[in-house]
Each structure stands twice: as structure tokens, then as C-alpha cells.
């Protein structure tokens, strides 16, 4: 698979887990401008990210962004927009998410609202608010077709979104609000793909694997390095043929 070429990228939820690893590996891939967004850049949870930004001034920029707050999204656009050149923004990685660990019987209204605000509505408004910069990148590239080097929206989804996989699992995992919100995120990918096709902005959902993070836990199958290496290889290989699709970190097509 081809490697991702130098680019500008926005990663949400970049302070820990897969988001932090994504920033590290985008740096290794010589991404020229990385906007590492998190909701509390000054907090203890963001120490590792602050260190990265200090080591790579002008390449890694910390951006305050709570995806569940539309005002915070708008504020972040002002900062990122002021730093982006005429070549716009190549890549949005909608990574931030929450997993309220509840079953159908224990879930509350607040759990459902939190899951939808963060996992579906957040990505929607991030895409909408940053769209002018994606369009600028698509225009500036001058390349035909679609690719992540040109302009792309990557929605980090989950196998828990799959209407084929989830009902076939032997035990009922307490993923009720999460699964439903990630299925919603997948539908957002489908709609966005339809509406951004004319702009040649690639849109995709990707399952990162079952990964050892705060969300995945210690029993998960792979580490963040393996997951993100795989995802970046996949990003480098994506074309208009995968536009609007759902794949995993190895490039395999996922069942919706
Ligand atoms: P973590 O729980 O380790 O990290 C979640 C990240 O999302 C944190 O940076 C957190 O920030 C951020 N976040 C949560 N709410 C908000 C918000 N309102 N605004 C901005 N940032 C927010 O999760 P992972 O790294 O494991 O997950 C990354 C992505 O991968 C998610 O989309 C997840 O659904 C998906 N995924 C993960 C799997 C796994 O096995 N780990 C499996 C399948 C999918 P803060 O520190 O402020 O809380």
C-alpha cells in the first residue's frame, strides 16, 4: 500500500489514545502542519501532546476543541484558519469519541445525548465548519480524482457500528449508546460522501481494530502503534473507489 504524503491535518481527541498516536505518526510521515485538537490543552491529560508541540513548533499546533460544543468548533476554525495557507486543509480525522458503558436497559437519556453529541453531531459540525478549507485543498491540489493527499474526511468508526457484527456476538456488550451513535456516524459518512463528491473530497469510515487504549482496555488485541500504522497505510491507498465506504485498519471492507 502507498504511504500518506506530506499534508496538513486536523486530528480531534489528539491528547491521548489513538489520536495522540496519530499525531506522532503523522509527524513521522512528515506531515507539514498538524492541528492537534483536544478539549483541554492545558490539562494533565494533554501533557504528552504539549511536549510534542514544544518539540515541533510550527508543525504541531495545539488547538482547543470540544467537539460536543458547536461554539468551541467555531472558535477552533478561527485559529486553524488563521494559520492555514492558500492550500487549505488536506485531512480531517474525526477521532474524538465517548463510550458510555451501558446496556439497552441501563442507558439514560444523558448517555444517549452525550454519545450523539460527541460521536455524531461533533463530527458533522467539524466537517461543516472546516469545509471551506477542505475545498481549498481539493482545488489547490490540481490532481484528478480523490485521495487523502488531496482532501479527505476520515471518520473513526467502530465494528460496534456494524448491524451485521453486533447482533451476532454471543454476549451482549454494554455498548448500546456507543454502537447506535457510531452507526449514526457511518450514515454521516454516507451523506457527506454524497454531498462532497462534486468537490472531490474523499469521505470514509474506518474501524481502527480493537486497540489497547483507555477506551479499548488492556484485553484489546493490538497496540496504538499497530492500529495507526495500519490506518495511515490505508489512508495512503484510498481513492474514489472507496469513497463513502467502511473499511478497517488493514484495508478490509467492513459490513455496515
Ligand atoms: P480514548 O478513550 O483513549 O480517547 C478518546 C479521546 O476522545 C480523548 O482524547 C478524549 O479527550 C477525546 N474526547 C472525548 N470527548 C471529547 C469531546 N467532547 N471533545 C473533544 N475530545 C473528546 O479512545 P481511543 O483512542 O481508543 O478511541 C479513538 C477513536 O477510535 C474513537 O472514535 C473510538 O470510538 C474509536 N475506536 C476505538 C477502539 C478501541 O478498541 N480503542 C475500537 C473501535 C473504535 P479527553 O482526554 O478530554 O477525555
Features of the shown structure:
256 residues; 13% strand; Fungal_SecMetab_SDRs; single chain; binds NADPH dihydro-nicotinamide-adenine-dinucleotide phosphate; alpha/beta; oxidoreductase activity; 7-stranded parallel beta sheet; Rossmann fold; globular; 7 helices
Description:
With 256 residues, the chain is of the alpha/beta class. The protein has a single domain, classed as NAD(P)-binding Rossmann-like Domain (Rossmann fold), CATH 3.40.50.720. It is built from seven helices and seven strands; from the N terminus they run βαβαβαβαβααβαβ. Strands 3-2-1-4-5-6-7 form a seven-stranded parallel beta sheet, with helices on both faces. The radius of gyration is 17 Å and the shape is globular. The model has no long low-confidence stretch (mean pLDDT 96). The structure holds NADPH dihydro-nicotinamide-adenine-dinucleotide phosphate.
